[in-house]
Each structure stands twice: as C-alpha cells, then as structure tokens.
Amino acid sequence: MSGPLTLVIGGAASGKSAYAEDLVINSGLPMVYIATAEAGDGEMTERIAIHRARRGIGWETRENPLTPGEELAALPPDRAVLLDCATMWLTNQMMRGDDPARAEDEFLAALAACRAEVVVVTNEVGQGIVPEHALSRRFREAQGRLNIRLAAQADRVVQVVAGLPLVLKGGAG
Amino acid sequence: MSGPLTLVIGGAASGKSAYAEDLVINSGLPMVYIATAEAGDGEMTERIAIHRARRGIGWETRENPLTPGEELAALPPDRAVLLDCATMWLTNQMMRGDDPARAEDEFLAALAACRAEVVVVTNEVGQGIVPEHALSRRFREAQGRLNIRLAAQADRVVQVVAGLPLVLKGGAG
Amino acid sequence: MSGPLTLVIGGAASGKSAYAEDLVINSGLPMVYIATAEAGDGEMTERIAIHRARRGIGWETRENPLTPGEELAALPPDRAVLLDCATMWLTNQMMRGDDPARAEDEFLAALAACRAEVVVVTNEVGQGIVPEHALSRRFREAQGRLNIRLAAQADRVVQVVAGLPLVLKGGAG
Q1: Closest residue on chain B to A12 (Cα)
Q2: Which of B11, C16, C36, C164 could link C10 by a cystine bridge, Cβ 3.0 to 4.6 Å?
C-alpha cells in the first residue's frame, strides 16, 4: 500500500521548502531528503548549502538529479520523504534535450507506488509575462503540465505565499 | 436579461482552459467556443490544435480575434459560451498599436449585455520580475487593469493553480 | 503598545494599492501615506501621479525612499498609515549596492514598534520563469525573503488577485 503524497507549490523564495521540511519533521518518522539539484555553478552551490544548513541534522540525504523515482522505490513504509524539487528535476531532464514525457510517466508511477509518506516541492512559474526565449516558453509549458499531473495524483496540495500555506486540495487531511 | 458571467484566471499552462471547458460542458446547454487566438506562427498553431483536440466535438466555434463582443451580442440565452481568452484578445489589440481602453469598454459592455452564460478565460501575468522591455511592462499593466474590470463585473471568479480551482468571488454560486 | 500590521501582497497591477487604500480609508482615522517611490523616470512619474489622483484628498503624504521606518517612529497611535510599497523600498536599497539585510532589520523593527495602524503593500515577484539577469535573480530572492518576514510579523495578510482579496492570515481580524 502506498503512502500519502503531498504537493507543496510556490514561487521562488516563497518559503515552500521550509514549509515542506516542517511537514516531514512533524511526521515523527525517520526523515529522508531526496535532492534533485546539481551544484553546477556558484549560485546553485550556495543555495544547496543554505538549504542543507537550515534542515540541520537528522536527515538521510540521497542525491539523484535524473531518476529520483529509483530512490522512492527503495524506501520502506515507515519513512517521511522530502523530494526537493520537481522543478530542478524537470530542468535536468530538459537540459539533456530529452522530451520529458516518458521520464514523467516513470516519475509519477514511482510516486504512486512509494510506500513512504512523500512531500514533493515544485515551483509555480507561469504567472509572469510570456518569456522571450523559446526554451523558457517550453519549460513553462512543461512545468505547468507536470504540476497539473502531480496535483491530480496528490492527496493534498498546498500553495505557499510569503511563507503562509493555502490548502488547494485535501483540506480535511 | 443577461446571463451569468464567470471569470477563470490562471497562469500559463495552469489548467485554466480545461477547467473552463468543464464548466461549459457541465451546463448542459448547447456550447459555443469564441476563439480570440490567431494562428500567426508555429507555436500558436500547435497550441490551437491541442486545445481543439481536447475540446472534442459538440462545440460551435466562432473565431474573432479583435471584436469577440460581436459574437456575444448575437447569441440567444440558451447557450453556454467559452471565450478563450481575454489575454489573446488584449494582445491582438496592442499589436495593432491601439490604446485598448475604448475596445475594452465595448468588450465589457458586450459581456454585460450577453444573454447566454459566459465563461471568460484570462491570464495572470503580473507575479514575475519587472519585464525588461517597455512593451511588456505596458502589457502587464493593461492585462492587470483588464482583469480587475472583468473580475468586478463577473458573478463568479475562479483562480486555477495546477489544475485546482480556488474561488475568489461568488463562492455560493 | 504597537498598532496592528496588515500586509497586502499582489502582482503588478493586481489592485493591491487600491485595496490597501480602502483599508486605511475605512479605518476612520486620520490618514498618512508613506511613499517609497522615487520619480526617477517618466514611467515612474506617471505611476506616482496616477496613484496620487486615485487617493484624492485627505492624506498626509511623507516621502521617504530609503528610511521609511523614521516616519513610522514619529507617528502617534491615532493614525492609519499606508506604506506603498516594500518593493520600491527594497529596489532603492539594492540600487545603492547595499546588502539589504541590516536595513531590513531596522525596517521590521520600526514596523513592530509603530503605534499607529499600518498597512504595507508588497509585490509577489517569484511566480515567473527564472530571470535571465543575476541582479533580477538576487532581487527575486531578496523580495521573497522580505515578504516572508513581513508576513510572519503581520497580524493579517491579504493576497490580492484581479482586485479581489484572499485572506492568508488573520482571517478573523
């Protein structure tokens, strides 16, 4: 039997990761952090360090930028997992030049089958002006479609604005 | 007597069109689709084809990129109409170099007078960084102001995030 | 004793300033407007004029682009204050090349100590695509972090979309 899936969606620097971390901490279960970020440049390395410092100790960390579903499949039921984040994972897929459709199917199937409690963090990226570059427009479309699929599959969806949660689905949960 | 007006607002690829289509389908009335998009380039042609395939059969389609109010005025009361979308309409107006203020007055008056049930789709475009180009900044201002006027006039306003609805106005409707 | 703090957050041209003005007008208290905008170019001068015309008479205006906290400290309790906006203030700080962290501490302390009723307007800027320029990315991060701190300190937080309010915190207030 699969565990509950929570999707936390928000803009950049909206407090979504901190909110998602609290969900996992408050579960009382042993905590696993699945990181999809790659420390490719200085900005990203700094960001990863900030996130790691805030999480503190007590997390088992697994880094898997392209196939985080493999980590999910290996988890026992009595774990609470933070997957941070779907946006970095999608970025990694698209940087490889692949159509993310098949990888998405596998990712969503792994989430559905995972026996642990899972919290997935993702970005809202579609509420600005149409981007100038075609790649940005494709990414925006792909991220929007992925978010719709994740939200449809999730038991609970929470939007975070300025650090404050707004439940979009599963309010009684 | 005019029919009820619903405004569906969301980011790019947020699932707003699919949600709006369901509202019209669930009305049980004969369905009319007023399209404001112009198939000017490959991207837009592809997008139009995707939307058309999803809607399926059963829709009477009317294309009117600049004066969709004329289509609204011609409709009998026993119709449910999807106007998709106010953002493409505003884009078409601004591409002509016109000040959209007068066209907006006419558009809003046509919505107010329409006897059919109408669902209007529009984009939220103001939640990113200040755009680099002056035209983008002007568009962002114009879209924001239009959305405020549409929302003030609507009986019901629904924001769509990751395919999930959040009622901003007319919750009991 | 400090007065209540309300944070109004929204995108560009979302109707957030008009909503915030109504909050202050409806307080029935003498009204103070603390302006952080600098009329540096034509666009901003026009925007300031539009805001001023809409507010109408009855406001005492104080302009302070960099240290609005000094205005807050000087206010008696029986005032309702509109500070518009935190985004322009942050922009002014960052244009000077300073790390805004210390100025933020002072700003937040002045808000906490202010005896008047205060409404602060701020922008949501993080829900678009990753900005192309490093400065824009830094600003987006700084604005997001500032919004989180403002929201944590506020008694009431309202998001405005298309002119419509959505209470994120302090719903009973």
Answers
A1: B128
A2: C16
